[in-house]
Amino acid sequence: AAPDDLDPDIVVIQQPVQNIYLAASAAMDMFVSLDALDSIRFSSLKADGWYIDEAKQAMEAGDILYAGKYSTPDYEKIVEQNCGLAIENTMILHTPEVKEQLEKFGIHVLVDYSSYEPEPLGRTEWVKLYGLLTGHEVQADKAFAEEKSAFEEVKNSVADEADQEPKTVAFFYITSNGQANVRKSADYLPKMIELAGGRYIFDSLGDEDDATSTMSMQMEEFYAGAKDADYIIYNSTIDGELTDISQMLEKSSLLADFKAVKDGNVWCTNQNLFQETMELGTMIEDIHTMLTSDDPNLDTLTYMHKLK
Question: What is the pTM of this model?
Fold first, then answer.
């Protein structure tokens, strides 16, 4: 039972939470690591939208049902099957009427702000919240400790190379209107590059007090700031994976003059990069390997591949 003297703006969530509607796709990997997939009943992605095998299999088996994307959920299905909680990412802030409608139906809405964490390990630590909600606190502590250990291993490797000048890295994708979408300097992804022993090419981009993690800039501005980057990582999350440099140059011919393109140091993320949030240590290790390997045949890592 909840205490009687709670402030009226405090939402009471009873443990353990069941029949979750998960619209924050980055949290799915955390539920998998907790062995708490059975607490999720609804997904905002269809089975073919998941790169996490356990989530895909659960949907194909009917254990998790597609209930519409975050902006147009299937209210009837969600209410009919007694949804205990809706977990949304920050995109829900652009459609506040959806949040209000869910709450009118008596469904509490929790907004996952893990993507705003400036430290990668801070993002991983959100697994403790989901462990608490689902009654899997022991599993959450174990999962977090394992990931923390992976971070420490990479940190120790980078420390041994402290006397070397860090390589610079640009991380971006080209939007449909021809702009470059980049991460702000305070975002967790530039921090991952730093932890891997590199340096994000935009070291003072954006206001630290602004929680949004990305921004778009005109290609001329992007060219001026990133043309001398030693490495390029193209973010494939929005418009799909690339296999060769020519595909990237079709998006903007200006990229042909970039140092990384001329040197052949162009990489692309795999589609699973942002879904597998419990593997950030491995992702940092991938970036570290990219920056330090002398193997000319190195073209595939766990979460990235080199463009031909």
Answer: 0.86
